[in-house]
Design goal:
Layout: E1 13-20, E2 29-37, E3 45-50, H1 64-70, H2 83-94, E4 99-102, H3 105-118, E5 127-130, H4 139-151, H5 158-174
Parallel strand pairs: 4-5
Antiparallel strand pairs: 1-2, 2-3
Helix pairs in contact: 4-5
């Protein structure tokens, strides 16, 4: 899949973030958020949704510490989108872009895979990569991104977290010596 390029050849950086019920091996995603900007000089577009628990996900793994951190009560998840509806929306938003980035590494990949398995009839139309892949060969720009993230505490909500990472990524790429925004 090719990454979409916008006007003047700038790469559209798209970030996805997941919030989960806990960090355990039986945890599941409770919220997903996406942030993108067609160009670094344009406003971010942010979308997020709560995800209602799939019948295969155990409510017993709910961690009250995660509830406090995210400010998401377990009872509010019944108002979220189903795993299938969430995947359909993600495909509509992200499929044409091809590649989506995250900073949660194995955790985000694990929750993404849990979401996909709960919606078996929906094939993801995009690939998930760690945001550090954008900075291969430019450690200084990666450090700039991490410093920007360190200066702003994470909101611990999927949409705002994705927006925070997207903005920090664009800012760091703009200072990159590799001209990554034009690749």
């Amino acid at each position: 899949m090719a990454e979409r390029k916008s006007e003047r050849g700038h790469k559209t950086v798209t970030i996805i973030d997941f919030e989960a019920c806990s960090l355990g091996s039986a945890s599941y995603p409770i919220e997903v958020g996406v942030a993108l900007a067609p160009r670094a000089d344009q406003p971010l577009h942010v979308w997020s949704t709560l995800t209602s628990p799939h019948s295969s996900w155990s409510p017993g793994v709910w961690d009250v510490r995660a509830e406090r951190i995210h400010g998401i009560a377990q009872s509010t998840l019944e108002n979220g989108l189903s795993a299938t509806a969430t995947m359909l929306k993600l495909n509509a938003l992200l499929g044409p872009l091809g590649t989506v980035y995250c900073d949660g590494g194995d955790f985000d990949r694990f929750w993404f895979e849990r979401l996909c398995r709960a919606a078996p009839l929906i094939t993801p139309e995009f690939q998930l990569h760690d945001v550090s892949k954008l900075f291969v060969g430019d450690q200084r720009a990666l450090s700039c991104m991490n410093e920007a993230l360190d200066r702003s505490p994470p909101p611990h909500r999927a949409g705002p977290d994705a927006a925070r990472l997207c903005q920090a990524t664009y800012d760091a790429l703009a200072s990159s010596s590799l001209s990554l925004l034009a690749t």
